[in-house]
Design goal:
Largest sheet: 7 strands, mixed
Number of helices: 16
CATH architecture of the largest domain: Alpha-Beta Complex
Oligomer: single chain
Number of strands: 15
Number of domains: 2
CATH class of the largest domain: Alpha Beta
Shape: globular
Strand order of the largest sheet: 5-4-3-6-11-8-12
Structural class: alpha/beta
Radius of gyration: 22 Å
């Protein structure tokens, strides 16, 4: 696979007509191969089962009411879609690598912080951001601010067709990847940021040989046995692979075209059909396991990072509060060929931080009171002590994050759609003043 991580997005661009034609073909295949009007009901909710506590004897949850006729109907539709998908070519700029994300409303400024953290690493990778509305696309954020940082806004419906405007939430990720200009994509959730320049990950193992790298969640997969029956796969043991934490995903469109088109099917019909099949109400139900399952069905290679995800957070009066999920550099991953995710005595470098709960939206952080001790009112860090942070990252990355939060909140507030800039409490102090106070108190 010939990869160039520094390829720009303005050389030999795929035309909008080519993207539109692709969108029409994909939509036709999706609609013609609907799984049908299946009423999937759960008899319970899959428990949050820690992955590394499972073994080959761990029973798989069985919590869906599906008739044999339903399974047969869905299996026929899936097979027909797969046959169609094998003849669909993906549009992309050959050799181009870049970062793709999606954000709208109050998450637009969160994305700007993530983008500024990326540029702090020295990375010059081009970025494409998929937004929701025409107003967002026409805003100063998209027209001036992001282009100044080699990032560009797009809308799914402009690239794929009007049908794409109805995609929402977890469905968006795979279609944003398909609609992006790049051959090789690092997808980052808007509330995730990289801890180092990710360019090397595009040209080194395991991506250079597999074309698909995923990162593990804490939990075992809670997919229904019916999912494997519908997609024609053997049912794996519960300790075969951890569930996916998809705040970050690395994929090659050239080597994983069928994988992505299958993932598109699982997400297009996700909310009512494939999400319950893949999770049965388990933790983080949504798109997360659609990529690995699609790769298995496509019989395409992939690598799930072996090093377990870590929680980074803080203690308050003896109680631990998780602040973010820490994922590790895949190029320094275990050389073991074992399918299970293992712990390591000497972990790889930190690669990305998914600040999912709470998100680094200062309005939310201030309003919820999470920044200060509930009993003393003293402000504190969210993702570990200074010493812990410097040990994990080689620098005080949380201090850097709050420098960017302050800059975006105070210097760019009038340039970014999405955040409230009015006072957030009964007093007259606004968000900017509170962010400045917090940063000066905590990161002296």
């Amino acid at each position: 696979m010939a990869l160039n991580p520094l390829s720009g997005i303005h050389q030999g661009l795929v035309t909008e007509q080519e993207f539109a034609s692709f969108g029409n073909v994909v939509f036709k295949a999706l609609k013609e191969n609907s799984p049908g009007d299946v009423d999937i009901k759960r008899t319970g909710q899959a428990a949050a089962m820690v992955f590394w506590k499972t073994n080959t004897e761990t029973p798989r949850p069985d919590l869906l009411n599906l008739t044999a006729n339903d399974v047969a109907t869905m299996r026929f539709a899936h097979s027909a879609y797969m046959q169609s998908a094998q003849h669909i070519s993906l549009p992309y700029q050959t050799g181009a690598s870049g970062i793709v994300s999606s954000a709208a409303g109050k998450y637009l400024p969160v994305f700007v912080i993530s983008l500024r953290m990326l540029r702090r690493t020295g990375s010059q990778l081009p970025v494409e951001l998929f937004v929701d509305t025409e107003a967002e696309l026409a805003s100063h954020t998209c027209q001036t601010l992001l282009p100044s940082m080699n990032a560009h806004c797009l809308r799914l419906e402009d690239r794929l067709g009007k049908w794409a405007r109805y995609l929402a939430s977890f469905q968006v990720k795979v279609f944003a990847i398909l609609a992006s200009s790049f051959e090789n994509v690092l997808f980052l959730d808007a509330d995730a940021f990289v801890a180092k320049d990710p360019s090397h990950a595009f040209v080194q193992e395991p991506f250079s040989s597999t074309g698909l790298v995923t990162w593990p969640d804490f939990w075992a997969s809670s997919a229904s046995a019916h999912l494997f029956e519908i997609t024609g796969q053997p049912v794996p043991p519960m300790n075969a692979l951890a569930s996916t934490e998809s705040g970050q995903l690395l994929v090659s469109k050239s080597s994983h075209a069928l994988t992505l088109l299958l993932a598109a099917y699982y997400n297009y019909y996700g909310p009512d059909v494939y999400y319950p099949l893949m999770s049965q109400g388990g933790p983080g139900e949504g798109d997360k396991d659609s990529f690995i399952h699609a790769a298995r069905v496509a019989q395409a290679p992939f690598h799930q990072v072996k090093k377990c995800v870590d929680t980074i957070g803080y203690y308050e009066h003896g109680a631990y509060h998780g602040g973010a999920m820490l994922q590790y550099d895949p190029t320094q991953d275990s050389t073991s060929t074992a399918a299970s995710v293992t712990t390591m005595d000497n972990p790889p470098d930190a690669f990305s931080v998914h600040h999912n709960i709470p998100k680094y939206d200062p309005v939310q952080l201030i309003d919820t009171g999470v920044l200060v001790d509930a009993k003393t009112g003293i402000p504190h860090r969210l993702i570990g002590t200074k010493e812990e942070t410097e040990k994990r990252f080689g620098r005080d990355v949380e201090r850097e994050l709050w420098e960017e939060i302050e800059y975006v909140t105070c210097e760019l507030a009038n340039q970014i759609v999405g955040w409230k800039t009015i006072p957030t409490t009964k007093d007259a102090q606004g968000t900017c003043d509170k962010v400045r106070w917090y940063r000066k108190e905590v990161f002296v």
